[in-house]
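Rotation project, supervised by the postdoc (A.L.). Task for the rotation student: set up a whole-complex structure prediction and record inputs and outputs verbatim in this book. Inputs entered:
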Amino acid sequence: MTPADHPVRQLPASPHLAPMFARAVLSGLHRRPRDIPTDVSRHRLALTERSIDPDHLAAYQRLCGFRVSDRLPPTYLHVLSFPLAVARMNEGDFPFPLLGLVHIRNSVRQVRPVELDETVAVEVWADPVRAHPAGHQIDLLSQVTVGTETVWTETSTYLRRGKATPTAAGDRREQPQPELGTVARWRVPKEIGRQYAAVSGDCNPIHLAALPARAFGFSSAIAHGMWLKARTLAHFEGRLPEAFTAEVAFKTPVFLPSMVELAATRLDSGWRLALHDGKSIRPHLAGTISPT
Amino acid sequence: MAARRAAILGGNRIPFARANGPYAHASNQDMLTATLDGLVARFGLQGERLGEVAAGAVLKHSKDFNLTREAVLGSRLSPRTPAYDVQQACGTGLHTVILVANKIALGQVESGIAAGVDTVSDAPIAVNEGLRRVLLDANRAKNLAGRLKALAGIRPSQLVPAAPSNSEPRTGLSMGEHQAITTAEWGITREAQDEFAVASHRNLAAAYESGFLDDLVTPFLKLSRDQNLRPDTTIERLAKLAPVFGTRSPNPTMTAGNSTPLSDGASAVLLASDEWAAEHKLPVLAHFVDAETAGVDYVHGDRKADGLLMAPVYAMPRLLERNKLTLQDFDFYEIHEAFASTVLATLAAWEDEGFCRQRLGLQAPLGAIDRARLNVSGSSLAAGHPFAATGGRIVANLAKLLHEKGSGRGLISICAAGGQGVVAILEF
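Outputs recorded:
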């Protein structure tokens, strides 16, 4: 958490994502990597008095496999915080171009469930750049409050590929894990990238169609990591605690369309899970659900 | 008022057909009506107003919202006989028997028919989910412009219909894939499964040869015996079949030979009070004693103990305890053969001391049964398994076995999709 005295810039409305992505496509690709500034301005972008649109919530719940209900899925608030995160990443002082950043990790903490009739405030800021074995990584943090109560927080880690930074050895937290048994399988349809883009506003071209995806080195369009995470959490309907943290690492892309298999095992408290393609050992996504 | 026991007077079914076989063009309503009429003819029920008819189908068209009532109206029964639909996956057939028997026991009705039907050949095909949403939105629109705007959302990909699937909605795994996990966890061998399948075919063939099924089955669409029956199958022949489920595991064991095929068919059972049976001069074959249902957490539970088709394992000790009986106190056992390994894993669990202590909360295992009393006139591996029709087949079969013996008790165990199980006791 950043200290509360960093300046806050109130936004009048949620920023529109499509123009920001369009601008990023036009300018971002040509932006030359400079010396990476490790210290990043910690100012916050903020949105207050944001109410939840029931139709939008239902569309999100349907698309991700949640029940349509008054309770927000644990990943839903990401859809509210994401435009602010993109706005932050599009600001001049942000050290990396938006396109080309790879979402490698996401941690969502639900302090308590949020209901449809609540009015929320969202704040987003960036943390300093850190070294990563494959380049540099940066965290975008979000915090959602109802009144003065923090109800939800999120950390999204993005990787900017580049020269390996040896100092990052300590960041390799991967330990060998025993194999988990398959507990479910589902189809990731070809249209899911466009459908999730429509609901979430995340119209990063790598999710929309094969052609733009190829421009970024993928053989076809790939699923949004946050859709995969949401669909995975939806599998745990009725079993998630009121307060918990769901942390996943995005390891390999899911090309559209695909069949994916969920493997999961119960821990003393919570779950360990991984999403596979059913063949290779390296998962698409791996993580934990832990009561907090 | 002390509850009385419902009497089972007999049953009727059509021979079970393999999917897309002789019944390919028959609907659930066609097969159920034919089966009810066969029962009417056998027991002289023309124009009779029965207390009720309860029936169901697992794969059901939305137009068949009143399937059973429609079948009654088309049958020779009195059109004043009320009816309702029931669905508990493969437990449907047995559950209709429980419902009718309970109403008889409480004195709410004097007679009734419990039935079930299923077709995978004439299965419902739904419009694509995306198209369905667009059409519903268009329907909700208040004016032409709104409707056109909604309809503009139709995409060519949405014109592909949604095919029926027999996978579990929560896991996306087929029943066979789920059972393959259970089979491996309980170490059920290929040899044991094939041997069990051969016995099912031999027993059913012998039942046909001896005439046991003559008053239980009525021919339909030129089929007079269950189409799947292979009287001459052997362990050697079954051993040649390639595994079809759990094929990514190191040692897959489940084949088309030791799994039930997708089938079409229907069955019905006539139940009544002893008084009604006497008035109608119909002999009582057996009585319905008690039943119990259970569920397992196959979505998030233990891979060995919470297998999709393991719920009867949990229902059984509760049923036995309530009736002060042990697993060995029965003359006949009818365990539905969803897969050979389902029956073998169920028996293994009841014999497993650690499992019975930890998961069933028992002091000692339920123990082994005399295998010579198990599925003595064949079961689903040989006959086939039209989901909702299996319960009625088994109940009529067991009632007749008890009637022929003239004494004793029989036990029924049926597993169902959604991790459910139904078990029941019949007595002469």
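Student's summary: The longest helix of chain B spans residues 190-209.
Supervisor addendum: Chain B is about 35% helix and 15% strand.
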